[in-house]
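Curious: explain these tokens?
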Amino acid sequence: MSGQMIAGISPVLAIKYQIAVMIEVYVTTVTCVALSKVLTSLINFDEYGLLKKVIFKILHIVKQ
């Protein structure tokens, strides 16, 4: 925001741009967290909410 003000843009416009950037960062973060939660649930859990047995086999292979 200070760079815009040094360049000569009005402070009100610089504040509007800053608010837009902060909203963009917030929405992106919330979207990524929600998407990772949904994908993790779909991949790692069965329809009863239990961990799939395949996960344990993959972990065993990775540790070796």
Summary: Residues 2-63 form one domain. Residues 11-44 form the longest helix (34 residues). Helices lie at 2-7, 11-44, 53-63.
